[in-house]
Amino acid sequence: MADRPFRFGIVAGLAAAGPTWAETARRAENLGYATLLVPDTLWTLSPWVALGAAAAGTSTLRLGTFVLNAPLRTPAAVAHETMSLDLVSGGRFELGLGAGRHGAEAEAARLGLRWGTPGERVDQLAETIRTVKETLAKSAADAAAGQARGPVLRAVQQPGPPIMVAGAGRRLLTLAAREADIVALGVPPTGTEYDLATKVGELRDVAGDRFDRLEIAYNLAAVGDELPGWLAGQLGADPAELVRSGSAAILRGTSTEVADALRRRRDALGISYITVNGAFMDQLAPVVEALAGR
């Protein structure tokens, strides 16, 4: 499990102005982060617009959704946007998908969309993945056969961009284990190291022989000893209390101590893809410098 090198990404989706957003992307790239990930909410930038703008201002930074709510889009729309963004980014896009985060039902209502039951949303996620893969394969086949008149819209990455699936429930983890390249563990900020290990165990159980082919991701809510007051509103709990209860999502201490904690997780659980709240991009940067690609 420790053989897979570390990757690091930031999760961000807000900016006061266009130049500010472009600078966020460039700074992430310059600090050695592998990815810029944009959430899918109605109170952050549109992920497609934000990632397209970030692609124009960077050259090596990979770009991803974290994660698209499958119930809020048709599968065909996701497939089209995936090919488009992979093309304009020069093959740097990673498609992150989920069956719907907590609280997104209200956003679906604002958009005039049906939310559906948990089972229906997982079914829609599965259909979205199937449609994306089939659309990518067909566009590649059409281009190779020269069937289209003129240029063909086709992803740069073949057979297609990596797919990340975020989830916690067994049915969703089973789908992720079967179809995804990357699995983002759905462990809330209240989750402890034990909860994290339990979720990895569930994934291993449903993935079987495919487990070692999966890149396992986990999102950090905060890093460092200075925890801003606004973090409580974002996490829905007092950060200091989360630390006292052993939250796995908040890492404190020196850069060396944080790096050691991440190494231990990778050795024990195989978690090698670390994403972090973009507000803590600078705090994690020394760890990125020490561990990225190693």
TrEMBL record:
<dbReference type="InterPro" id="IPR036661">
    <property type="entry name" value="Luciferase-like_sf"/>
</dbReference>
<feature type="domain" description="Luciferase-like">
    <location>
        <begin position="22"/>
        <end position="219"/>
    </location>
</feature>
<protein>
    <submittedName>
        <fullName>Probable F420-dependent oxidoreductase, MSMEG_2516 family</fullName>
    </submittedName>
</protein>
<dbReference type="InterPro" id="IPR019923">
    <property type="entry name" value="Lucif-like_OxRdtase_MSMEG_2516"/>
</dbReference>
<dbReference type="Pfam" id="PF00296">
    <property type="entry name" value="Bac_luciferase"/>
</dbReference>
<dbReference type="InterPro" id="IPR011251">
    <property type="entry name" value="Luciferase-like_dom"/>
</dbReference>
<dbReference type="InterPro" id="IPR050564">
    <property type="entry name" value="F420-G6PD/mer"/>
</dbReference>
<keyword id="KW-0560">Oxidoreductase</keyword>
<dbReference type="GO" id="GO:0016705">
    <property type="term" value="F:oxidoreductase activity, acting on paired donors, with incorporation or reduction of molecular oxygen"/>
</dbReference>
